UniProtKB/TrEMBL annotation:
Name this polypeptide is given: Antibiotic biosynthesis monooxygenase
One MF annotation (Gene Ontology) recorded for this entry: monooxygenase activity
Keyword line: Monooxygenase, Oxidoreductase
PROSITE patterns listed in its UniProt record: ABM
A Pfam family reported for this protein in Swiss-Prot or TrEMBL: ABM
Organism listed in the record: Streptantibioticus rubrisoli
Length: 104
């Protein structure tokens, strides 16, 4: 398993709404076209309306690379910058969990 946790901070509330729309459109494509993407979730942060947390879990590094190579992901990566004040990325090394069938 290979994962990411990403914290995005949007520029303002208007940018956050546009970012959420971009995320929704991209998420539809991820769900439809990426069997190696095990979890791709987006969360609003309670009490911090401009922040979004992404939790991404991929079957393996190859599935992540396949995700990154998709045209719709490249479009997302390019378009998102206009809405964001900051981005923090943590790469995750899976240890254990519930709800995911994992061969380790």
């Amino acid at each position: 398993m290979f994962g990411l946790m990403v914290r995005f901070t949007c520029k303002d509330e208007s940018a956050a709404a546009e970012f959420d729309s971009l995320v929704a459109r991209t998420g539809e494509q991820i769900r439809a076209n990426e069997p190696g993407t095990v979890i791709y979730t987006v969360h609003r942060v309670d009490g911090r309306p401009l922040e979004r947390i992404f939790y991404e879990l991929y079957r393996d590094r190859d599935a992540f690379e396949a995700h990154e190579s998709k045209d719709y992901v490249k479009a997302f990566l390019s378009a998102r910058e206009q809405y964001l004040a900051s981005t923090e990325v943590d790469r995750l090394d899976f240890v254990s969990g519930k709800g995911v069938d994992v061969e380790h």
